[in-house]
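Sample intake — Tail fiber domain-containing protein
Collected from: Bradyrhizobium uaiense
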Amino acid sequence: MSGVNNLLPNTGVTSNERGAIDQLTSMGNAGNPYASGTSGAVNNLLSGGNATAQNGALTDNLASYRAGMTPYTDPNYSTINTPAVQAALHQVQDDVTNQVNGQFAAAGRFGSGMNTQTLGRGIAQGEAPIILNQANLDTATRTGALNSLYGAGNTTSNAISGNNQTANANTQAGVNSVGTALTNSTWGPQTALSASELEQSLPASNLGLLAQMGIPLAGLGTTSNGTSNTTANMSPMQATIGLLGGLGKLFGGGA
């Protein structure tokens, strides 16, 4: 009975409970500090996570590379008229001319028809390997340029395709994270609401405990005869009335 008497003034929340409730309320009113970050991350994922940001640069790089290779992929590309090749051809002409003309001059036949024929044939035979070799080099250069462009196109296409797939995966991850973002956005009010519910439920719980203790106390000093198999469930109001009545009898209270 003395224990019950000591509990009567303490049916509200304790100082520790009050501190915890106030802290929860303050945290809830301040809101979830990670809510904006979570929302930003989810929105970024939903938009692809910036995975395709470099697609334009990849396309531009390929265009620049194609433009730079255009001279080498031109079917008319030839280096036969470059200074180096022309210098080699002129050197052949000079060498053959000096040799053939010198021989015919020594024989006293310089300027003859045979001199001209021999000179032309010698120059052609000397220049032909140079011209043919340069044509083969030019063909190899064009073929290499075309192969490089083909490879660059495939590389760019694969890179863009990979970026797009990553963007799709990021979008799906964003969809899967929407629930988390929503939970974080409502964390503040939910926490404040939970603190408010605690503030109401703790005193009610304490009163309910005392009410259950008061039921047997209310029956002290009374007698009963006979037996009964009837059971009844008391309402919280009835239990509280029973508690107050029992305490009144125990401690000399009035009606």
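Post-analysis note: The chain is about 75% helix and 0% strand.
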